[in-house]
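Before the break, one more example. Copy the sequence into your notebook; we will annotate it together after we see the structure.
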Amino acid sequence: LQHQDKSLFGTKLQIGPGRRLGTIGGQRLLVLLLAVVVPATATRAQTPEDGFSAALAELREADFPSKEAIIERLGASGHRAVQPVLTAFLEDRLFVRTADARIFIAKSADDGLAELELVDPVTLRDAGRAMSAEISRIGTNNRLRRVLRTTIAHFSLASPDASVRLAAVRDMLRSLDEVTLEFLRERARVETDAGVTRAIET
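Here is what the structure looks like once it is written out:
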């Protein structure tokens, strides 16, 4: 058995007071074990909030097609701040602060204001103020706004409040396309409120 140990690792590994790790073979084994364990630990440390924050940060430099993909990822994240963030994006209230490239929600989209109140898009807590010259709006176009409206409506149609669902349907009807129509047809099959169903079928 001792001979077999030597053929595999050079000599037996011995770790203890006053003893050192055996041979180069043993050290290689330890390095391999660490290479497996450390990445696995780092992966387990990732949280849904990390994924949401990472996707949000990509909006800073994204072109319009990339922004559509990011919106889909944000919508699929299940994060509690998805709807407020996408609503702010639709309403031109999503900004990047020039000093540190952080993204914030502004409480107002008024271009006439010299200073804007900011909200952290992940925690939804107040994040102080910024001068208008210190922040840049994250832009949208007509296609992106349609994507945003549809994604926000998906969240609203899941609300237990029929009035919220009705408002979502009416908003979707303002910008109909094949995707929206198919979504509304699917919703009509499970909708329990007569008023919402009538709005969909109108």
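Residues 24-44 form the longest helix (21 residues). Residues 1-16, 18-23, 29-44 have pLDDT under 50 and may be disordered. Try to locate both features in your own notes.
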